[in-house]
Amino acid sequence: MDTMTRVLIAFDLPAPHVARLKKDFPELIFAQATEQKETFDHLPQTEILLTFFRCSRKMLDAAPELKWIQAISAGVDYMDLAEIRRRGLLLTNGRGISTINMAEFAIGAMIALARGFHVMVRNQVQKRWDRSLPAGEIHGTTLGIIGLGAIGAELARKAAAMGMRVIGVRRTAAPMAYVEAVYGQEEMGRVFEQSDYIVNLLPWTPDTEKLIDRRSFDLMKPTACFINMGRGQTVNETDLIAALQQKKIRAMMSDVYKTEPLPADSPLWALDNVIISPHVCGMTPHYMDRAMEIIDHNLKAYVRGKGEMINAVDLSSGY
Questions:
Q1: What is the pLDDT of residue 317?
Q2: Considering the entire predicted model, what is its pTM?
Q3: Residue 161, class by beta-carbon neighbours within 10 Å (0-12 exposed, 13-18 middle, 19+ buried)?
């Protein structure tokens, strides 16, 4: 009887990476499936599932031998976490893969808003020469980071190097490098009050759904900007649109939305103080290379008992 552990790669991991896994872990049987039928053919024998935005309740039901799910994304809000917890499965995620590129995206967004790049692009389309543009600096301003996880920590480091004062919010307040003041979630309003730029990095959980709403935007300076890079569901979009329309805040750059793709009838498309990006801030040409570092580490820990697994998800909090 075959007792070898079976691993299913349920996403399009490039062939050289698959070959490397097979070479480095000869004690494992690897299968790869990107189509639904092929995936469900392999699931009944699968003990380890490597997945990227694919893990439905139907998939869980089809995998009675499953013990560990390695997500290649940082967010796992697309999974049935309650059921995963009920079944006693281990879930690890891709925390840290997008740290560098997302921190860079946030710095770029703040500079773009400070210098009015979005106004320049609109003027270019209209062949309009207008030198009365915003000419701000991010140096000397206050950055408020909502969600001081791995990405928030890297953003704080980069922002401090740019001469920004950094404050932020964690679920549990505790000192952090490069962050002048760390507040708990119950004091989030203090960050909105003080900041010139707010970067939202919150995951979507029952505790964070629509956490940022009219009360938050009412606390912001009229010169402040909001940058949303976490999950669209963490923001009350109706309140956000109202704040932008009424110029309660100066501008916004958003990469995530309540509904994606952003519907054509969303008022956000037409607002001249908004930069819209199509949920791309996590993309990087180095994504799979960094994912492989996590996969390799955790496979060694799980199969060979070498070290501890990293990025275990707290199934009660959702991250």
A1: 84
A2: 0.91
A3: exposed
Residue 28 φ/ψ, nearest 5 degrees: -110, 150
Which residues touch 57 (CB under 8 Å, ≥6 apart)? Answer: 80, 83
- Is pLDDT of 187 > 90? yes
8 A C-beta contact, residue 313 and residue 82: no
Taking the CA atoms of 105, 110, 115 and 120 in sequence, report the sign of the dihedral they define: positive
Three-state secondary-structure class, residue 12: coil
Q: How far apart are CA 291 and CA 308, in angstroms?
A: 17
Q: Which residues contact 32 (CB under 8 A, 6 or more apart)?
A: 8, 9, 10, 13, 18
Per the CB < 8 A criterion, the answer to whether 162 and 138 are in contact is yes
What is the sign of the dihedral through the CA atoms of 169, 172, 175 and 176?
negative
Q: In this structure, are residues 114 and 137 in contact, taking their beta carbons and an 8 Å threshold? A: yes
Rg over alpha carbons for the chain, rounded to the nearest Å, is 22
Asked if residue 168 lies in contact with residue 148, where contact means CB atoms within 8 angstroms, the answer is yes
CB 10 within 8 A of CB 50: yes
223 C-beta neighbours (distance < 10 Å), count: 12
Res 278: pLDDT: 98
